[in-house]
Amino acid sequence: MRGGVQCAPPLGQSAFGKYFGWIESSAEPFADRTARGAGEVACGVNRINLVGYRPQDPWKMHDVFTSFSPQNKCVMKNTSNSISTALIPTIPLDYQEYPIEEVQRRSLEYYENMKRRRTVRDYSRRKVPLDIIENCLRTADTAPNGANQHPWHFVVVSDPEIKIQIREAAEKEEQDFYKSRASREWLEALAPLGTDENKPFLETAPYLIAIFAKVYGLDEKGKRVKHYYVNESVGIATGLLISAIHHSGLASLTHTPSPMRFLNQILERPERERPFLLLVVGYPAADARVPDIQRKSLPEISTYF
Predict the structure, then answer these.
(1) Which pLDDT belongs to residue 70?
(2) 181-210: b or e for each residue (b if 16 or more CB lie within 10 Å)?
(3) Residue 267: CB partners within 8 Å, gap ≥ 6?
(4) Are 84 and 16 in contact (CB under 8 A)?
(5) What's residue 49's pLDDT?
(6) CB under 8 Å to 271, separation ≥6 — which residues?
(7) Which domains are assigned to the chain?
(8) Given this model, what pLDDT does residue 33 score?
(9) CA-to-CA distance for 185 and 163, rounded, in angstroms?
(10) pLDDT at residue 141 in the model
(11) What pLDDT sits at residue 86?
(12) Residue 285, pLDDT score
């Protein structure tokens, strides 16, 4: 893929190159397995140049991110889910050690920041620069995942027309939920929170991020490739994404209309991708309010041996 345009696979791809899905390979010897500048990785004795690689971006951004905006309906299409059998080279761990007092301070500061995170249902229409969202997606893509398959895809929606379609479809499912599908016990649990089938935030918030779980992938021959620990992997990535959004100074809401398959049709995602969650992102409205509820204490949620 170059600049969001699908490219034909180049000739002479190595097994490791197929892992990336879009490479150019040269036969230049590369014995020391050390990258020679941005956009190059080592594999055996060949040097592999990543087409369109930007030093500031993980290569996977071209594979896990789709954007729907008024200017460009759909960019950065998915390329490849194939798995390489080549041994991945190792590099030194990039680890920064701090004095124990600094570790304690950092852990407390992070908690003090995160405990202010709330689920927000009232949003401002104030615009948010896309690069902030992209940085949060990059953070989500650092999540640990089964066999390093990154079984997720994030679809970022800012186009007003598409947001309207999503709201209409979601509210239809929510109406059925509140009127017939939800049990009395479930409705009683939701009642104190004041939720109902009306979801205006799906239109007012500047961004919706639809998170898809890739149940399986396809190799270059169209053969199904099994993905491992999909729910666990996508759940961890979603948690990191929510944390990054809050850390950036934005608010979010996790929305899970059931069923959510309408997202595949509206957002043009294949059937092998299952809608996992719809994340609403933006600035809270000036008069936004949240329920006066408390989180559980540490003894209630933890046990030590």
Answers:
(1) 66
(2) ebeeeeeeeeeeeeeeeebebbebbbbbbb
(3) 66, 68, 155, 157, 162, 210
(4) yes
(5) 35
(6) 264
(7) 1-55 (no CATH), 57-88+96-286 (3.40.109.10)
(8) 34
(9) 31
(10) 98
(11) 73
(12) 97
In whole angstroms, give the CA distance from residue 209 to residue 252.
10
Q: Are the beta carbons of 133 and 212 closer than 8 angstroms?
A: no
Whether residue 14 contacts residue 46, with contact meaning beta carbons closer than 8 Å, is answered with yes
Query: Looking at this protein, which amino acid is placed at residue 161?
Result: E
Which residues lie closer than 8 Å to 146 by C-beta, 6 or more apart?
A: 227, 228, 229, 230, 232, 233
Please tell me the predicted confidence (pLDDT) of residue 130: 98
Query: What is residue 71's predicted lDDT score, i.e. its pLDDT?
Result: 63
Spans in the chain with pLDDT lower than 50: 1-60, 75-80
- Residue 278 bridge partners (DSSP): 210, 255
Rounded-to-integer distance, Cα 71 and Cα 245, Å: 24
Q: What pTM was computed for the model?
A: 0.72
Q: Which helix (H) or strand (E) holds 260?
A: none
Give the integer Cα–Cα distance in Å for 4 and 135.
Answer: 18
